[in-house]
Amino acid sequence: xxxxxxxxxxxxxxxxxxxxxxxxxxxxxxxxxxxxxxxxxxxxxxxxxxxxxxxxxxxxxxxxxxxxxxxxxxxxxxxxxxxxxxxxxxxxxxxxxxxxxxxxxxxxxxxxxxxxxxxxxxxxxxxxxxxxxxxxxxxxxxxxxxxxxxxxxxxx
Length: 156
Hints:
two-stranded antiparallel sheet, three-stranded mixed β-sheet, single chain
């Protein structure tokens, strides 16, 4: 929480002059004839409180605070399922599809780092985009090609 002051006309100097003038009036203007000593003190205290309230109004105080919360959203993960993904990757040990799945599995296993409000939405594409569902958790097999079965994680 942060407190701020925004004085009228943006000038603390003007506010200071007004404060000096009001205190001068409070101190030197005493039209208290016919009042008892207690009534005079009560009147002085009431006038002082009014001056303080007026000064507070002239300073225009404000408060601001920031509420932090986890971001919400969905991350769409696009995975290529075209026939070119059957070719070997740059290292020659795995196909492009297997490397792509390693990236997906790494993303999935580290999803807690994204926060509780972030969902992963896997999609595959070739000539068309196909959603595999937004919730992802339990392992399942999805046949994307007759010759290749892919392991993805599916949520409850």
